[in-house]
Amino acid sequence: MSLGPDRTTCATELREAMRARLDALDPPAGANVDSDQVRPNFDALGQALHQILTADAETVSAAAQDPAFWTFLSDLRTEVEQLRAFDAGLKGAFAAWDPALPASGAALKTAIAALAVPTTTPAAPADLKGKLR
């Protein structure tokens, strides 16, 4: 479940939690949360909770919370380094190439063929995990 774009989800969750608590009383009083005098209070609490969770809280992620994401990030960095090495090798091969010398063309082809092609880009995780603090 997501928080949604506004206070609605938070207010509903608070209201339903209080309804369950009040329905456990004898006699049950859960219907009180639907009162026109009570509903604005839950809406205000829902607004405050939504504000805390969406604007005031700091979201953090580390390997402990989301190992799949951090493994993906590490794999992506490895791929970037492979691409840099490939780029440097390609530039070096062309820098050594002399189009005026026929044998230089064969050396260029050999140098390019010897380059390690980067591996497949790692698949991104389907979702991210973290915690609020």
> Helix count, per DSSP?
4
Radius of gyration: 30 Å
Q: Label the structural class.
A: mainly alpha
End-to-end separation in angstroms reads 19 Å
Characterize the structure shown.
The protein is mainly alpha-helical. The protein has 4 helices and 2 strands; from the N terminus they run ααβααβ. It has helices spanning 8-23, 39-56, 67-96, 102-113; strands at residues 59-60, 131-132. It has a two-stranded antiparallel sheet with strand order 1-2. Helix 1 (8-23) crosses helix 2 (39-56) and helix 3 packs antiparallel against helix 4. It starts with 7 loop residues before the first helix and ends with a strand.
The gist of it:
By secondary structure, the protein is mainly alpha-helical. Helix content is 57%, strand content 3%. 6% of the residues are buried.
Features:
mainly alpha, 133 residues
SSE blueprint and pairings:
Blueprint: H1 8-23, H2 39-56, E1 59-60, H3 67-96, H4 102-113, E2 131-132
Antiparallel strand pairs: 1-2
Helix pairs in contact: 1-2, 3-4
